Amino acid sequence: MRPLHPPGPERSAEWRRRFGDEARAERPDLSALCLLVGAQADGELDETGMDAAQIELDRLAGELPFRPGGPRSWATALAEHLGDRCGFRGTPGDYQRLDSSLLHEVLRRRRGLPILLSVVWMEVARRAGAPVYGVALPGHFVVGFGPPEQQVLVDPFDGGRVLTGTDAELLVAGATGAPLDPSMLSPADPLDVVLRILNNIRAWAAARPERSDVALWAVELSLLLPSHPARLRYDRAQLLVERGDFLTGALELDAYAEVVAAVDGPAADRVRRQARAARAMLN
Q1: What is the pLDDT of residue 229?
Q2: Alpha-helical segments (H) within the chain
Q3: Exposure of 236 by Cβ count < 10 A (0-12 exposed, 13-18 middle, 19+ buried)?
Q4: CA atoms of 280 and 122, how far apart (whole Å)
Q5: Is the predicted pLDDT of residue 11 greater than 80, yes or no?
Q6: Order of strands across the sheet that contains 161-163
Q7: pTM confidence score
């Protein structure tokens, strides 16, 4: 596995600026956002590399032999092309790799997490003219084709296998223990897809305390999304304190406490105590 080294401060700041601009665009480009996430992780990824990744998605779309027609035909054509001929799929070991969450590396390795493989499926299918979208099932991201009454689901992690209704129910039950709710089959917003990718990266880093740098840039990118959980500010503050930036972390904790105070006074008091404890580390 190629070691990934983050970019320097100036380049990192530029990627973050571009990420924020793209996230606030009228129609955010999912592939561009995913590549900018990759650029934060991999200092070797530059403009040329990002252009090459977009060209590869174009090439894969151009290799589809025909416009199949209905949702099931599209699903089958993409599975035969991306899953069978090109070999895009996932393995259990991919969950242990940071590069499984980076689009440029998934395109290179043809391996990745379900959500990144789904991004490849969506971007290739979209370029080819398919009625495609992501479906954020709990615990396992898949791809949908067609309107609700004709919806066909595929699992890119399993090479694009077409899912039956029972398959989808089992995926949800395995992740949550609860039944499948029809609302779970709705198309996922591109920004929600990006937030879920960043959450996966944070989970990867959380299991590796020595990689708190990865957790920090992932939460900071998440905060650039127009809509994000308020708790991310608390998570960022905690990471700053863990990394030894006690003063900035304490200031962030105080700011978060002010937000929380309006709805949960005791929780705000607990956060303020954490801020005082962080400042005490300076003595």
Answers
A1: 86
A2: 9-23, 30-41, 47-62, 71-78, 103-109, 114-128, 165-176, 190-206, 212-223, 231-242, 246-261, 265-280
A3: buried
A4: 50
A5: yes
A6: 132-137, 140-145, 152-155, 161-163
A7: 0.93
Largest CA distance in the chain: 69
Q: Which of 77, 79, 54, 83 is nearest to 65 (CA)?
A: 77
Amino acid at residue number 200: N
Contact 241, 250 (CB under 8 A): yes
Q: In sequence order, which residues have a C-beta less than 8 Å from that of residue 169 and are 6 or more positions away?
A: 179, 180
- In this structure, are residues 144 and 62 in contact, taking their beta carbons and an 8 Å threshold? no
Residues 36, 42 contacting (CB under 8 angstroms): no
Measured CA to CA in angstroms, residue 72 lies from 76, 77, 170, 184 at distances of: 6, 9, 21, 20
For residue 87 the two structure tokens come to 């070999």
